[in-house]
Amino acid sequence: MSRLDSFIRRLEAQRACLDLAAELIGDLDGLVLELGLGNGRTYDHLRSLFPERTIYVCERRVAAHPDCVPPPEMLILGDMRETLSAAHDRFGGRVALAHLDVGTGDAAANRALAGELLPLILPLLQPGAVLASDPVFDCVGLMPLPLPNGIAPGRYHLYRRVNA
Amino acid sequence: MSRLDSFIRRLEAQRACLDLAAELIGDLDGLVLELGLGNGRTYDHLRSLFPERTIYVCERRVAAHPDCVPPPEMLILGDMRETLSAAHDRFGGRVALAHLDVGTGDAAANRALAGELLPLILPLLQPGAVLASDPVFDCVGLMPLPLPNGIAPGRYHLYRRVNA
Asked: What is the ipTM of this complex?
């Protein structure tokens, strides 16, 4: 499998997980949290999936396509290790879906960052909320969910927030 | 359709066109020319499609994944407007497949560059050679080929080199 093949499979898995997550949170009120804007493609997909929901976006430094930059009041600029701590008063328990893609190309660095972020993300999620994630997590507060049809295990991840 | 959707479709179209091009040149001898290395994903795909063929890669400045950097002797570094002119003595009429993806995100600049490159690419192609291309071309020396099944017109392009 070439890198082009694996890249396409990863994007297809990401999109399928976001689409399924949208169904899974259909009965939950709450906001959507995009953890990492990047080029803005998944933010744009989230906008199309959730036209009625509030979507906040965390990003260190905006470098997205101009069409995919969130309005300033929905943008939480800075290092997520700091901004997510500070966001607890605003968002604690109010998030219905969080999406975390810390893909920097450095797998070890991604895992380390994801591990640092998880304890900051968990308290933001309401019970029953969904976390769609590139990194894998093993955590009592997160129950792994079955992936969409046709998506191989490990290609992307879906979790339900449960009581620890 | 979100930007994530359209990006996936574009990559799927690109891959399908390269796969079909590999079939189309099955009976032709000749080398493969990757015009633009970028992150190296399509180069890696070409390597997997053509393990027996010589693949040359033109790129201004290598910024690919380390696993996808061609050996130095297969890399033609510099502005393609200059290097392709200079390559004529080496490759003229010897290329069986060229792949051109000048995707810089700026559609007008891409079209302008593609227009400048086309007269330099054409003499490198042997009769019957295939050009897979992101930009569209309208040129008597290139006959548009049907796209692979399921790929919508205009999403990517395939041409056969014919006598003008």
From this structure: 0.94
